[in-house]
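Handout, section B. The chain below has 412 residues.
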Amino acid sequence: MSITGPYPITTSLRVLKELQYIKEQVKGITPDSPVFTAIGVNEFLPITASRIIKYTKLGNVDITKAIPNTMRHDFSMLYSPVSLDALLQSMVNMTGTNNREDSYTFLLSQQHPNDDSTALEEKYQIARGCTIASLTIRASERRLVSIRARWAALSITDWSAEHGLTGSPTFDTLSADSIPWSSIDTGNNPLKFLDLGGPGQEYDIRNIIIVINHNILRRQIFDQDYSVRIDPTIRDITINFDIVYKDNEISETVKTFQQQQLTLQLNRTTAAIIDRIILTFEGVLLHTYEEVVNANERRRIKTVHYTGTANSVSIAMETSGGYVTASLVQKYHMGGKVIETSIQKHYILNTVPALTSIHKYAIRQAAIQTSIHKYNAIGVVTATSTQKYDIQPLGLGNFEDENFESSNFVLD
């Protein structure tokens, strides 16, 4: 078809249905009546590439023929997450409800010139059987947390006016109230090394880059010019970060090849009940560190750059009724997780890592004691004789002591 006159131009502003996804039950097949979840991407880049076999013969200086062999479909996307959803967990985690073995269908619609190129009409592009190939997580000062992910797909359709989905699909739009994660939301000292003595050493960071490569394997067989299956294999994890100089603890582990456990708090709320998005790295081995002492950097604080690898990484949300960060508690603490080992009076909590140095009461979720002299604050009450109080997990118990005061309980 020849174009005889001006035609309307397609731009990024012409996107009608932003990139959205749904998990597949069968790899490569979109569920019936799918309910999509929007991502809110900054960039979507589909890549379709044909691999060829070059044929040459004696006497010819040029390639005699290029023979198409296989077709590969990939795409990358860049976005700033607003929550810990199934998609992000599937990009990082090895196990759990959402993990890297999951496959997804992605959909996008944009206004394109219609058949006679006189007007724009909505057209769809759908990628099916998508498996995470690699991702890069970046967090730096005064910027949004960004994730660039590359996916491998079994197929990516051409733009079409018909989406071809079965049933009644439900499309989504990211809410205008959704706030992407940024360096402001991480909280103080978001980087923590847990094996540097005590409960862990915390550090201020200027920026961090995490690269997770799943090293996918594409399965192709004779008589097929496309991938029939895509699977992740051995995972490579690299970490680069700059911290504000504090001590020599980390640099010493570089010299001694000491593996560490590392956590990075990507985001948290500021409410009394704190939800924390945590990246946990096991077997972290930092192999390089660099520090610059420059006479021209008069207005920059001293930072140290570290590079390393990790054996594993996972992402999860920690939700608690007050995440305890104080190192000294005078009276009562009701929290979801406590790492301190010195408690002067009473702790009412879910997780206590060590119960050997509590002078009065060991009150925990998995209590098996049958007699508790004063307080029984446990998740599942099995004790038959409790002299005073039975405090349930959500703080629904009765406080009958005349000395009880709400100010004695701290919810951080």
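Note. The radius of gyration is 28 Å. Compare this with the example in section A.
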